[in-house]
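Predict the assembly for these two chains.
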Amino acid sequence: MNTATLLIVFFAACGAGILLSTAVRPAHQGLVLAWLGSLAAVAAVAAGARVLLTGEVFTQPLWSLPGLTTLTLRLDGLSAAFVLIAGLVLLPASIYAGGELRSASFRGHERPFTVMLLVLYVSVVLILIAGDALLFLLAWEVMSILCYLLVVTSPDREDGQLGSAYLLLAMGEAGTLAAALGFLVLALGASSLEFHALKSGASALGASARWGVFLLTFFGFGVKAGLVPVNSWLQPAYAAAPRAFAPVLAGATLNLGLYGILRVNADLLPATLAGTGLITLVVGTASALLGILYATTDNDLKAVLAHSSIENVGIVVAGFGAGMVFVATNHPMLAAIAFVAALYHMINHSLYKALLFFGVGAVETQSGTRDMDRLGGLIKWMPLTALGFLAGTLSIAALPPFNGFVSEWLTLQVMLRSAELSSTGAKIVFALCGAGLALTAALAVTCFVKVFAMSFLGMRRSDDGRRVAEAAPATLASMAILATLCLAFGVLPTYVIPMLDPASTQLARASASDALVPPFFASAQGHGALPEQFAGEFHDLGAQLGQAVLPGRGLVVLHRGGTENPVVFAMSTSYMLLALIGLLLLSYVVIRLWLTRGRRLARRERWDGGVRRLLPEMTYTATGFSNPVRVIFDAIFRPTTVEDTRETVAEHFRMAIRREKERVHVVDRLVFRPVRSATLWFAHALAAMHHGRINAYVTYAFVALLIVFAVLPMS
Amino acid sequence: MSQWVIKGIRTGIKTTAYPRGAENAAGITPGLPRGGSFGTGAAALIERCLTHALDRTDGEISVNSRRCVHCYRCVRGVEQPLNWETTYEWAGAGGVPPLTNELGRPFRRSIHVLVVDAGDCGACLNEVKQLNNPYYNMHRLGFFITPTPRHADVLLVVGPVTDQMRFALKKVYDAMPTPKRVVAVGACALSGGVFAKSFVCANGVADVLPVDVEVPGNPPPPLAILHGLLVAVGRKPPSQTPAPAGHAPAAAAR
């Protein structure tokens, strides 16, 4: 099937789903959503993969608006990568949402939810395959409004839900406005709003216009991506979103912001100013660091995932920034590697974040809470969910052999390649950002050790007597799909990197395929693309192992430098997995057959300090686990004390000490609250003019007239 | 800043020579009464012993050092004092048949000791604490204190095992990996001491756990405890000071 057919299948499946859902009974809405939604997702995956594998760009003009633009569908390498990711997430998300729709809490909301979710699918794909700014912005608006509606129609209403949904809408719209302005600046030199026209017209733009476009679109689209300092909507919106919608929000719509940033600042307007790249890099690193700090110290599972989304988007954007700097400083190969790393991380984030949201949804459904201080020990009752969740946490903590490791490793390697830059200032920025990202990676491990351990291990802390059981089959199936993908993307990076190559080639104008995945499988010896001696050495190491059974280039990710530094970095999670399995078996053999031979195995109770009965209250809490981080980074958190009282008897005997602290996100504290109070102050100052006396208004009109008469002759 | 280096070099090594040589410093041990043949006044002496540590067997006064609290009532204020020995190598093998006071070769040079306070008055615990100071310095012998039973090879118990600690002590012992040894330190841990069997405590550690090494004394000096640990790892032979269990006239006294 060609790309057009696949896209038609996608739109037809979504349309059929919308029509069917208006016809069938509410009880069957879940089936409609699950089957037609996943069919559409499969079509999207196929379309994206087809363009990425064949390299054929699909272009289809739709409708000509004379003097403005031609509405065009265009699926090039960059769009295809994003469509592929969106499809990969929407497939399990449809199955999961289909299952969720059957739950009692959704009663009465099934039909609008199905229709809106399917329209959202259409708008997401339309944004990605729009070939002109007008269609792009139209689809973007539809997507923004649907996100708001889907959050608002949540069946399980919580306090402040409307407020957070409204914040999502308001900030989203402000971002859209900024991005639209950016497009207008971009269109100054272009003949029409089609992307290819914008691209050819962009070369005429001066530096100030370029900076304007960058700032407007970077922060405009950054709202949807959740970048610091425009991330305030993200955490409340994720917390308020229905369980069935949160995975889509995190896995699919978040990427649209990244797509917008890339499309405008790396594709339409190729980076010629290193400064834009450096700002991107710094903002990305700041987002990553702040995101993970707040994720580590939060105890609400959904909030942790939301903050960690900010972190992951930060890592991706830092990769984009590195790529933009390398493009601007004319290092196309390094830029290609940076973009590959960033796109790879974006795929990974979508996969494991959706997986974790499924898990959190299952936990919340079963135990009725998301507070880690009240969870615990769930692995006993929901082992399969725990297994899927563990795969997600290992991936997000960037531990091999799961996917997060590959992309974070590549990103950090890219940061180290800043040695190639000539400017010392840029080098310093890269070094600091690299250190920030490394710290982020370390904190991410802390964070997700906490998330998994506090929810699934240990003792159950809640004593509400609820019966907890394994999650629904639909949830387990969707988790299984994503867990498998997480493992596959981690073990087989050498197949993913060439797949992403068309996208990064489009941005960097150089192919990273040969630079990252040398063809060790190409032939037994010689390797046309590799120097003979070099290939021979790797042949001796066994880099060609597996060539008889596997197609492709090889299983080693390796970057070659010049003659004096033949291997800059090299890694193979595929062989690492084999080695890990081998070591595991070996250690089993050593321990069971050799070290403990002839010894009796004794099983005793766990050591609990010798207490008579270990109570859940005595065990480690989530708050306690993350307290060191809270203490170390107190300067950033700056909690304000809400309550600090002590009850005493006869002055000396303390009965109780109560201390409660409240945290306001550092971005809210430093950016939004000042802006809000300044705006309110300004509004109050203006409102002083409006006291309702007609004489005053006549005077205002007269003064305005005088000013007009005074100014007019001058111009 | 670096004064302590010079001072340290000037001071030299002050750590006790034990176990390589004998330690003869004054006041290093309170000593224990030694029995023996005794003429008239034996009954009065036995009467003077408040903890019933003295008994008469075969015309001789025998001393049950598990009970002795070094009150010196058998030495001071009497016309014919009992013999008093001022040694400190008095840790003996416990009454676990068969005698299993050796952990085996791998443990001779390195053991981890878990100290459990099973209702101790603080005296024995204080002497145990001295093992960590520069003078006794148990680390040089490869003995280390650990807070968790999972890492412990030797369980060192002080105190008569109060009822509140009985369960915890059992749990600690169960939580230790084999091979493991129990060292009971102090008269209370060996026999209940001045607390003896009462409504709040047991008659010593042996009521709860099999004791491998017994260190008498109330409190025993640090060197005696060190000797006990050395006995536990098999680097010193056990002394015969606390008579082997079964020979003890403890039951008769009560």
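The first helix of chain A runs from residue 3 to 23. The radius of gyration of chain A is 28 Å.
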